[in-house]
Amino acid sequence: MLWSRRLSGTGHLTDSSQRIGLADSRTRPLMGRLLHRNVRPQAGRIVLALVCMAVAAAATAALAYQMEPVIDRVFTEGDRGALLGISLTVLAIFIVKGAASYGQAVIMTYVGQRIVADLQTTMFRHLMNADLGFFHDHAPGQLISRFTHDTNLLRAAVSTTLTSLGKDSLTLVFLVGLMFYQDWLLAAVAFVVFPTAVLPIARIGRRMRKVSKSSQTQTGELSGLLDETFQGARQVKAYGMEAYETGRAAAAIERLFRLLLKAGRIRAIAHPVMETLGGVAIVAVILYGGHQVIEGTKTPGAFFSFITALLLAYEPMKRLAILNTQMQEGLAAAERVFTLLDMHPRITDRPGAGPLQIAGGAIALQQVEFSYDSEGDGAPALHDLSLDIPAGWTVALVGPSGAGKSTVLNLIPRLFDVDAGHVRIDGQDVRDVTLDSLRAAIALVSQESILFDDTVRANILYGRPDASEAEMIAAAKAADAHHFIDTLPDGYDTPVGPRGVRLSGGQRQRIVIARAMLRDAPILLLDEATSALDTESERQVQLALGRLKRGRTTVVIAHRLSTVVSADRIYVMNKGAIVESGSHAELIARDGAYARLYSLQFTPDADGVDAGGESERARA
Length: 620
Hints:
There is one protein chain. By secondary structure, the chain is an alpha/beta fold. Among the domains are: 3-9 and 26-200 and 269-343, ABC transporter transmembrane region fold; 361-436 and 556-620, Rossmann fold, CATH 3.40.50.300. The chain contains 22 helices and twelve strands. The protein has helices spanning 15-20, 27-39, 43-76, 80-128, 132-137, 140-182, 184-191, 198-231, 233-238, 242-295, 300-321, 323-341, 405-411, 435-440, 456-461, 469-478, 482-486, 505-519, 535-549, 584-590, 593-602, 616-619; strands at residues 3-5, 343-345, 363-370, 382-389, 394-398, 420-425, 428-429, 442-445, 523-527, 553-557, 569-574, 577-582. The strands form three sheets. It has a six-stranded mixed sheet with strand order 8-9-10-5-11-12. A four-stranded antiparallel sheet has the order 4-3-6-7, with helices on one face. Strands 1-2 form a two-stranded antiparallel sheet. β11 and β12 form a beta hairpin. α3 (43-76) packs parallel to α6, α8 packs across α12 (323-341) and α10 (242-295) runs antiparallel to α11 (300-321). The longest helix is centred in the middle third of the chain and has 54 residues, at 242-295.
């Protein structure tokens, strides 16, 4: 792993925290961090929501209190004069309660969505600063799941927790206060059974968090599988693997289904527990209170007012009791989100790093050791590698696949850091200069032809967003792209589709080259830059690249040796080391590894390929 991980609050559970399920060594830091970073900025709105909750809670208690005059004065005494007054009072209470509930709901919706939006922005900014190795180690679907599924679970947990702790707690305070005001002994009888629910509910919460975390992980794996399959739809259909991929997806969906079903069962257990205890409390009140009414020590109105308050208190009491279960889902999501945010990139600016001072763009790799395996168990990608690229020279790296050519290109802009040795530009170690200044001096064109789901214009301007229209068009013309762009439905404003799917491979590559040309950087890194072009387009782009390379330091990776014969120096690589170097003529005369590679590509084969053309064997 190229990121170090720092988890908050790791430790062992104490006996007491195991019993209650809320105070374990991970929950408290998670709760504190969530409240401090994401909830506290919304404190003003939360206070306003609490005021609305208090009004709604008081209105609920007032409704229960109105049952006493309704029963005693209207139904028992038949007081017609009190009927209209009580009715208008009840209507007013409902209006106030409705308005307060609306205000609280709107504010809490804003708070929940704002927390999710801020968290997603923070996560995205954090990932944009991640090392390239991080994206190699994490499937896109897993990361997308953090942004969507996990943050929405977190939003639901925050909204539910704040609403329950606010509205439900205040409602209980007013209703319980009314009940004790009316009959403290009857109230004590009603509430004596509820503390017994704490232990089973706590156990349910712990199980819920474990299952929820597993289901969130499985959701990420399913997202990754879907992303991989949809991106590879062409290969799936070409190889007739639709049934196989359907089976893989069905298995992943089934695993997620079983986890969600298990979570639903665990979540549902809390309800019968609370229903049973609530029923016991209400039966106790009916038996004791009914006896008081029969004996004449309590009026029917007072009894109905009390039992109404108890029934109204039951739902918020139940929500508070099962709050731990719901909160554990959000805490499991928070743990995954904060684990991501707690990963720190290794590729950062050193303290005191200054801007790169470009004198000519000379590049030197000195005794470089590098392995993609951070544990050091795998074979090194580069071993004791040294090479010099004088300023303004064009240097080619050739050799078989896996020789380490792309790794050299990755080390120059510090996409990775060397394990040992140095990478220098104009004598400055790339680790001693700022990343912004280093990468501003480099333009990269790879064989992947990555375009973003935007317009042609936006994709070219990605190289230099502040460039003028004339500069953009000049870059497109130099890359032999202007002509075909003019034929598109909306010209430069034509959307290219996801990953540029609306364009051909050659068109995509020419737009990528135009982007690099517009950047006008002193150092060019070309990784099979013309691999997707037809012969005529390649010839035109090679001419354009020839003009662009003048006065710039260029490092070229190419498998087609015809594109590098004019390079100032050619390095032949094999197994992470330099095995030969020199000009094309020198290497041919040496009759070594380069001469053998050249012979494979340019010697006529049995099918009669002309000398200088690329044989079918070489293309394969």
